[in-house]
Amino acid sequence: MTEAQLRTATHGLGYGLTALFMAALALQNLRYGFYGLFYLGAAITLLAACGMLYTIVVRRQQLSARLHLPILSGLTLVTGIAQFAGPHPETSHWLFPLILLNFLILPLWQALILSATLLLALTLRALILMPTPDAVMLILAGAGLVALAAYFNGRHTHMVQSAETLAITDSLTGAHNARFLDETLQKELSRSRATGHPMAVIRLRIDHLAEIGNLHGTTVRQRLRRDVAESLFSIIRAGDTLYALDDDDFFLVLPFTPEEGVRVIVERIRRTIRDGAWPPVGRVTVSLGCTIRQDTDTQADTVMARAESALDRACQEGTDRAWFQAEPEPES
Ligand SMILES: Nc1nc2c(ncn2[C@@H]2O[C@H](COP(=O)(O)OP(=O)(O)OP(=O)(O)O)[C@@H](O)[C@H]2O)c(=O)[nH]1
Known about the structure:
Layout: H1 3-31, H2 35-57, H3 68-83, H4 95-105, H5 108-129, H6 132-168, E1 176-177, H7 178-195, E2 199-206, H8 209-216, H9 218-235, E3 241-244, E4 250-255, H10 259-275, E5 286-292, H11 300-316, E6 322-324
Parallel strand pairs: 1-3, 5-6
Antiparallel strand pairs: 2-4, 2-5, 3-4
Helix pairs in contact: 1-2, 1-4, 2-3, 3-4, 3-5, 4-5, 4-6, 5-6, 8-9, 9-10
Guanosine-5'-triphosphate (GTP) is lined by residues 236-237, 240, 254, 257, 261, 264-265.
Organism: Tamilnaduibacter salinus
Transmembrane segments: 12-30, 36-57, 69-86, 98-123, 135-152
GO molecular function: diguanylate cyclase activity
C-alpha cells in the first residue's frame, strides 16, 4: 500500500466515523428538542461528510491536498460554538473525536493550533459551567489527549522523514546515493539554464583504491571512503551536494560556480586529501575531473559524461591530478 493510499484510507475512515458519530448526536438532540444543538451537529456531520468526499476525490494527490485545513477549521469553529450553545446538555465530548481527526489528517503545527483552540473553548466552558473538580478533570483529559495525539503525529512524521532520507542516502559515507543524483542533476541543470547562473560538477576517484583494498582489506577500504567523504563535507560550502556513486567514485554538484571557481575548489580538495593523514593507509591522493554547464547542455547525461571523460584524462596524466574539460572530447 502506498503512502497516498494509506492516507486516503485513514482520512476517509476518520471523516466517516466523525460524520456517523455526529449524525447520531444530532438526531439524539432532535429527539429531545434541542434544536440549536441539532443544527450544529448536522453542520458538523455535513462538513465531515464533505471531508470524506474530498478525500475520495483527491485520492491520487492525497499528499498535496490543501482543502483539509479549511474543512477542519470549519469543524473546529462549529464545535467551538457548540460549547457555548447552552448550559444543557453536555457538549464537551464533541471535541474529542475532532482533536483526533486534526492530528490524523493535518501536519503537526496546524493540528496543534486547531486543537489548542478547541482546548481553549473546552476550558472556558468547563470553568464557567462546571464544579471545579469536574472542570479540572475534563481539562486534563483534553490536554492529555492533545499531548498524546501530538506525540504520535510527531513520531509518524519523523519516521516518514527518516525513511525518505534513508532512500536517498549512501549508508557508508552519508553522501547522497547515485539514484538520487539521477533525480537531482537534471533539475539542477534546468534551474541553472533557466536562471542563467553557472553550475559546475566534479567527479572524484580515490587513487589506487582497489590496491588499498587488496593490501589492507575491505574494512580499511570502506573506512577510507567514509573518511574521504567526511573530508569533502568539511571542504564544500552549503548548497553544494556530494554523491557516492556505485563504482566507488564521488560526484559533486556545485550550483552558482563558474570555471574559475571550480578550478579553485578542485585544487583545494586535491591538496587537502594529499596533505591529510589517513591511517592505516598513510598517503592518499585523488584524481578529479570537472566541467561546467555549457549553453548547449540540455541533458544531465551530457554533463556527467563530460565529467567522467575529464576524470579519465586526469587519471591518464597520472595520480593526484585534476583536469578541467569545457567541451566534449572530439570523436577519435
Ligand atoms: N561551489 C563552491 N565553490 C567554491 C568553494 N570554494 C571556492 N569556491 C569557488 O572559488 C571561488 C573563490 O573561492 P575562495 O578562494 O574561497 O575565495 P572567497 O572570496 O572566499 O570565495 P567566496 O566563498 O565566494 O566568498 C569562489 O567564488 C567560488 O566560486 C566551495 O566550497 N564550493
